[in-house]
Amino acid sequence: MKVRRRLAVKIGSIPWMPRFLPQIVKGDNAIQSVTGHRTTLLDIADLPNITIKVPGRKSGITRTTQLLAVPDGEDWLIAGSYFGGPKMPAWVFNLRAAGTIEIVVSGESCAAEATELFDEEREAAWHKLRAIWPNFDLYEQRTERKIPVFRLHPHPAAEPKDQPGPAS
Fold this sequence. Notes:
InterPro entries: F420H2_quin_Rdtase, Split_barrel_FMN-bd. The protein is of the alpha+beta class. It has helices at 3-12, 21-34, 41-44, 90-98, 119-132, 135-142; strands spanning 49-55, 62-68, 70-72, 75-79, 100-105, 108-116, 149-154.
């Protein structure tokens, strides 16, 4: 494991760290703003990540969230852990309502289908998530809620439609 990732795991395991999540998010937003959205706190920590863009289930306004995400073939795995806090992250409810969302990976945007995983599929994905971020185990212990796990399956880029040629 890389040095910065080891340090991030250590910091993420501090029991009082969840209280500072709003400040962490503000700091991450500042980093993204200064770097023209090319770098995030997760990038600095050498952690794989994606941005999800999901319409709010009530407002319809697109909400953007940067998440630790684990690649799984062409798909991505994400967890609604919120540092093991008692409340479910709002993006989880929006994702459940949306089904199809937009994801941004390394600056490339595409549509993706979001599927919540259950039973054996969830356990297999949870194992892959924990391999990258061992603190998911701590988060599971900190909360009474079942942390949701999702698979994001990117849609292939749409083929350009044939344009009619000039009339002869």
